[in-house]
Each structure stands twice: as structure tokens, then as C-alpha cells.
Amino acid sequence: MLREVLGEYGLDDAVIEMDTKFHEDLELESIDLVALSGQLEQHYDGRVNFAEFIADLELDEIIELTVGRLVDYVVSCLTSVGGR
What we know:
84 residues, mainly alpha, 5 helices, 56% helix
């Protein structure tokens, strides 16, 4: 999903690792995270609420958001839903 968003900016060959930062390394802006949010919610049938996740973060945490932190959040959402 992240590759799709990056492909729109010609960054489909960008290196993506767990410590890759959305803002600093991938140069994604908040509108790009909104697009990714929609893809996550659609792909996981609403089980992943990225907007809620971001709302709980401070501004500096959003700026420093890494792929790994997002992955951890997605896994926690899917695990908690699956465990109900």
C-alpha cells in the first residue's frame, strides 16, 4: 500500500525499512498520510483506524512517525480484532 502512495510521486524505488520515517525519509506530507489511511481502512475492512492512531500522537511524534511504528499499530489492531 505504501508503494502505491509512493508510486504517485515517482518514489516507487524508495528503500522502505522499519525505521524509515514518513516525513524525513519519504517526504510524505499529511495529505499523503490521509491517502494511506484510506487504503489501510479499506484493505482491512475498517479494522485499522489510522485517523484515531494519529489523533493520539503529539505533533513531534507524527513528524517522526516510522514505518515500524505504523506496522506495530496495524498488527495490534488486527490482533485485538482477531482475539475478540
